[in-house]
Amino acid sequence: xxxxxxxxxxxxxxxxxxxxxxxxxxxxxxxxxxxxxxxxxxxxxxxxxxxxxxxxxxxxxxxxxxxxxxxxxxxxxxxxxxxxxxxxxxxxxxxxxxxxxxxxxxxxxxxxxxxxxxxxxxxxxxxxxxxxxxxxxxxxxxxxxxxxxxxxxxxxxxxxxxxxxxxxxxxxxxxxxxxxxxxxxxxxxxxxxxxxxxxxxxxxxxxxxxxxxxxxxxxxxxxxxxxxxxxxxxxxxxxxxxxxxxxxxxxxxxxxxxxxxxxxxxxxxxxxxxxxxxxxxxxxxxxxxxxxxxxxxxxxxxxxxxxxxxxxxxxxxxxxxxxxxxxxxxxxxxxxxxxxxxxxxx
Length: 346
Ligand SMILES: Nc1ncnc2c1ncn2[C@@H]1O[C@H](COP(=O)(O)OP(=O)(O)OP(=O)(O)O)[C@@H](O)[C@H]1O
Ligand SMILES: [Mg+2]
Hints:
The protein is α+β, with helices and mostly antiparallel strands.
């Protein structure tokens, strides 16, 4: 990743976390000004932007032919630069854009996935250049998230951070402000939702939009993903064959099984990181455990499942969904110790 110093970050005016699921923007001195779905709705006849964010997401699956709902960020990287720019402009709104335009040399920061390739990094930079930034600093999402959740990253003890996003789960062991080992597993909240949708389709011949799986996930909670929650729960969807509305009683244990595959990939990732980690640091981790951040850290019972599988303490950050952008915010405001300056070179 590009070498960035804390000094350069302090000179940035705004910071952006363009996620597969959500876009978040922090403006120096103003705080978090945007936290919206990374979605845009366009009129395919005229090319005009119809809606962005929450409003565009609500349109998913409900639009007439001439409206298309698109996601300019996929798998954690910007896949449609032009659309990402238009979406961001709209999300920022006139007032914030005016404030930013007044800066003589506008500087932006962005976090990018841990193993983002040069092309993905380029796409993030270009998106922000299109918004007027003259200079863009990139920060590893793992560092941004660790800083954002207040982990003592600059200490000589190891801490483990796990960024549970929509498209991926990223894991790192950090010590003295830098990444000791890291992994990116291309499995996140989307994969879990997808596994549930597929399960309902195959076992119950029920179609369900992925936004509708949340109640089912909640039924898995309370006692973790362990088989003690309610045994079944009622789900409303559409019959695959007749297309008519139908509700079914879904066995929660079977749903738990269905999401095992994506979760196993995440567990494998934890194992890999631990194996690559020096023994002294593993001893620290046994005490301090894993800090979960990212929106999918809120998946009911995931923390308990990880606790059982690893035998390590597992914590969920206070506002897990906004940790990465909050970390960038701290860097912009100069609210972190200069000791973790070098690590940003990782
Ligand atoms: N309460 C919740 N329970 C379960 N899952 C949740 C909850 N809230 C958010 N999620 C999931 O979290 C994911 C979004 O997390 P986040 O906002 O960190 O994603 P992102 O930063 O856009 O993604 P990425 O970092 O992978 O690009 C979605 O998959 C969403 O389904
Ligand atoms: Mg993210």
